[in-house]
Amino acid sequence: MELYSDIISPPCQNVLLVAKKLGVTLNIKKTDVEDPADVAALTKINPQHTIPTFVEDGHVIWESYAIAIYLVEKYDKDGTLYPKDAKVRSVVNQRLFFDIGTLYKAVLASIEAMLAGQQPSDDLKEKLKKALDLAEKFVTERPYAAADHLTIADIFMLTSVTALGWLKYDLAAYPGIERWVGKVTGEIPDYADFRAELKEGTEAYIAKNAAKSG
Ligand SMILES: N[C@@H](CCC(=O)N[C@@H](CS)C(=O)NCC(=O)O)C(=O)O
User: Fold this and answer.
1) FRET label pair with 32: which of 95, 136, 143, 197, CA 20 to 30 Å apart?
2) What is the CA 165 to chain-centroid distance, rounded?
3) pLDDT given at position 153
4) What pTM value is reported for the model?
5) Which atom of ligand 1 is closest in space to residue 10's alpha carbon?
6) What is the pLDDT of residues 46-57, one digit of tens each?
7) DSSP 3-state assignment of 167?
8) Average confidence (pLDDT) over 166-173
9) Residue 169 contacts by C-beta under 8 Å, 6 or more apart in sequence?
10) SUPFAM superfamilies this protein is in (predicted)?
């Protein structure tokens, strides 16, 4: 199984962490989406040229949500990460769609503004606050984001929340989220190693951009 990936991308982190939790080994094809040669190679298998892109025996999947669902449906033997019960799964799905359409979207918009050297607008700030208010509610009304145990919803929401590190966002107003982050990261094998690799990748990206701009 191959994954075209860069650890600094939160969508890639979704898949890397789900694979880690499943104990599935991925052969990582490090891909820089700002490098024309890497993009050309990726476009041959994924016309949308997005990372993460996953390949197993010639079968190609992109969109981190679709990749993660494939992995858990195929490799999660006890089925807890993506529960089979229709009602429980519907809550996991709701959180996943909340993540792609609201939480990650708001986080990404603010990071993009920051990387472009702009202050986030009041509208962006409000959207992020509303998304985090909802996330706080979700992680405090149940033991985990969608169920009474860890599911892929926790992993996807986790990467959105930890991406707030780019903004040095103060989460003090969200004690439930802070507690939940500790609980969820404690259940992911070798999470400290993952964070160390992410820190290294992030610093390299920042240094590369600083060199480019001058
Ligand atoms: N919804 C997608 C988002 C993937 C995405 O936009 N990835 C970015 C990197 S974080 C990318 O590949 N950008 C390059 C491009 O769009 O050409 C997912 O969850 O996989």
Assistant:
1) 95
2) 13
3) 98
4) 0.97
5) 10
6) 999 999 999 999
7) helix
8) 96
9) 128
10) GST C-terminal domain-like, Thioredoxin-like
How many residues would you count in the chain? Answer: 214
Alpha helices in the chain (DSSP H): 10-22, 36-45, 64-75, 86-98, 104-115, 122-141, 152-162, 175-185, 191-213
What pLDDT, in 10s, does the model give residues 16-54?
999 999 999 999 999 999 999 999 999 999 999 999 999
Query: DSSP secondary-structure letter at 120?
Result: P
Question: In the predicted model, what is the mean pLDDT of residues 142-166?
Answer: 98
Best of 33, 38, 97, 100 to mutate for ligand 1, by most ligand atoms within 8 A of CB? Answer: 33
Pocket of ligand 1 (CB under 6 A): 9, 11, 33, 49-52, 63-65
Helix H or strand E encompassing 56: strand 53-56
- Residue keyed to tokens 């860890």: 150
Decide: helix, strand or coil at residue 4. Answer: strand
Q: At what angle do helices 122-141 and 152-162 cross, to 10 degrees?
A: 140
Structure tokens at 141: 């009304």
Q: How far is Cα 183 from Cα 54, in angstroms, rounded to an integer?
A: 28
**pLDDT class for 209, splitting at 50, 70, 90?**
confident
Cα 154 to ligand 1 centre (Å): 20
Report whether pLDDT(214) > 70. no
